[in-house]
Amino acid sequence: MPATLRRQIGAAATGLLSCIIGDMRLAGLKTAFLETAKITGMIFMILIGAEFYSSFLALSQIPQTLAETVAGTGWPPLVILLIIVVLYIVLGCMMDGLAMMLVTIPVFLPVILQLDFGMAPEAVAVWFGILVLILIEVGQITPSIGLNVYVINSITKDVPMTETFKGIVPFFLSDLIRIAIIIAVPSTTTWLAGLT
To answer: Residue 22 in 3-state DSSP?
Structure first.
């Protein structure tokens, strides 16, 4: 049986079960459609804003100018990368992941590609992309202001916020170690792709 057909059957069975034994009556269905429409609208507004932003950056040549300026400072590539890492963690505490990617990648990627990390530009782009994805997630669980921690705490109302933040500290520290490994040994992000 094709995977697409299996997914369709699974979705239909889930919908049927939710109508029979769940809370998906007409009112629940209406609420689900409205929430879906709100989220879809929000995502499309972000994408439309990102499209205008990208056009502005392309016309103004800001990323290229910034990349040339940063490359001309003479700072070691590692120092510039660490500044970008800190910026991503701080932004991750306040912004949605999709919005942050759409806003920052057009600015930071040209800067990174101008620096010498001892890899081909394609490998640098893959390495930086993976690093950015990890940094966005780390920013959203950063202690004291990470947005995802507040979301988790709102689900478990009987758990104090301090306990929730204590609970994420081991994950936060392990993520920092993972980021340090990826920065120190960039090949950890590209060796698997090189096997194909």
So the answer is: coil
